[in-house]
Design the sequence.
């Protein structure tokens, strides 16, 4: 158990951040799964819409410091590559 008031505050902040980050991470994984399923089903319109949404969410997660910039860059490149092959 922490002794300092600042340590208690840090614990509260960490808990809030962890919950927020888990929510975003779950949303990203779900979007990615739906995107891949749309690609497999050859639903071009749905895949394009989901791809754009996924890229946007990845960029937002990057700007918040949740994901490393190289990770986002790699994932974006793979998404856009798959969309290009779809056309």
Sequence:
């Amino acid at each position: 158990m922490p002794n300092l008031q600042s340590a208690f505050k840090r614990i509260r902040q960490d808990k809030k951040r962890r919950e927020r980050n888990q929510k975003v991470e779950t949303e990203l994984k779900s979007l990615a799964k739906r995107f891949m399923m749309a690609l497999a089903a050859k639903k071009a319109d749905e895949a394009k819409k989901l791809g754009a949404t996924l890229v946007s969410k990845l960029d937002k997660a990057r700007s918040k410091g949740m994901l490393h910039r190289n990770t986002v860059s790699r994932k974006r490149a793979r998404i856009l590559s798959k969309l290009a092959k779809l056309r």
